[in-house]
Amino acid sequence: MSLFAVCLTQNQRASLWAAAIAATLLCLSTQPTIAADATPIAEVDELADFDPTTSDDVTLLSAHIDTLRGELGGVQGTAEERKAEFVKLMREMAVTCQKIKDLQGTGVPLAKASTFKIVSLKEIAAATETDADKAAFEAALEEGVNSGVADTIQIAIYMIIDSHAKAAARDGAKLDVEKMLTDAQKRVDMDQPGLPGMIVAKIISPYIISRDRSEGIAVLAKAIELNADSEDPAVQAALKKVEGVHRRLTIIGNPLEMSGTMLDGSELDWSAYRGKVVLVDFFATWCGPCRAEMPHVLEMYEKYKGAGFEVLGVSLDDSKENAESYIAEMKLPWQTMFPVEESERGWRHPLVTYLGITGIPQAILVDPQGNVIDLNARGEKLTSELKRLLDAAPTAPPTEQEKS
């Protein structure tokens, strides 16, 4: 599966929007949280004819990044005119990002600057194809990989992958996973402990698994082993996510452990689901692909509920009200999990970390004994599995004796 056939969360659109990764089948979680800026919104007249090179106001500079993103969506004219304006706006974005970093901005402004500096320089290099712009992008990648900040490292690695994915699409060729891995390894020593190697393992392992499952799982296992004894809090936080990915990718045929609170505040009784085929559906109300899939899940539920099929929803919404409103709107008859603690909502849901969930909808199908059958039971895959598991077994034709 191509990473870029994905639906991005609201925060991810802020991270990778400029890279034009908008066509969607899944919703990813692995980008930095930079959409919810707590800094005051700048007045419109403050941003008119704004010159980032002369400003020392981090708040205004951060707002200017958003202004430029809006302007990028309105570029018009001939192909050459659009390209020229696009490059001009991207250069201004790169300058703005660097100014925030030079002023030692923190929090959301710094997250924005770190992300969009890499993204803008990548787009400039792709548009102009000049050696100078390619060198600037390479330097930004190097800076990002060695930043020591997990979100920034991720953006740098994603840009490396994106370069290979777009090149393959342009040439009408299959993505060369080995070449992509080699390119990443030139920048990151995956034989050494630390954030960069672990993040590369987490991001690239699904591609390796598509080619050789055992090799991809081994890459994750090695990253876990290398970092198991680290006392660095950032490394430990990333390690939990890598362990979750490894756990999810090796769970087929094994029991799925589930715990947590329901939307009504009660505790999940996972044992009550034994004896049934269960679809554990990770979703969110803002996820378009989740909404698109839900009518099919409802159809399958109505068809097979009497035969022993059940659904357990896991909402990754931040707002309980949004989840409740959507469930009422769709008339979802099954139970849904939702954390009581606000700090555990959205992509911070404990089950997201435990299972290394990086995209939704994530539809995990579990057999009556509680063992995982499938990690992506959507669409026709769900239909075929339920038919296989729950449709009445075909009867043999009657014998001549029975006919009589």
Give your account of this protein's structure.
This protein is α/β, with parallel strands linked by helices. It has three domains: 1-128, no CATH class; 151-250, no CATH class; 270-390, Glutaredoxin. The chain is 54% helix and 8% strand. The chain is built from 16 helices and eight strands. The chain has a five-stranded mixed sheet, covered by helices on one side. Helix 13 (320-330) links the parallel strand 4 and strand 5 (335-337). Helix 3 packs antiparallel against helix 4 (79-102) and helix 7 (150-171) packs antiparallel against helix 8. The relative contact order is 0.09.
Compact summary:
The protein has 404 residues and is α/β, with parallel strands linked by helices.
Order of strands across the biggest sheet?
5-4-3-7-8
- Give the percentage of residues in beta strands: 5-15%
Please work out how many helical segments DSSP would assign. 16
pLDDT < 50 stretches: 1-26, 30-47, 393-404
Q: Structural class per helix/strand content? A: alpha/beta
- Give a quick account of the main beta sheet: strands, pairing sense, barrel closure: 5 strands, mixed
Number of strands: 8
Overall spatial form: globular
**How much helical structure, as a percent, in the residues?**
40-55%
Query: Span from first to last CA?
Result: 56 Å
Kindly provide the radius of gyration, computed on alpha-carbon positions and rounded to a whole number of angstroms: 24 Å
Average per-residue pLDDT, rounded, comes to 85
**What count of domains describes the coordinates?**
3
Order of helices and strands: EHEHHHHHHHHHHEHEHEHEEEHH
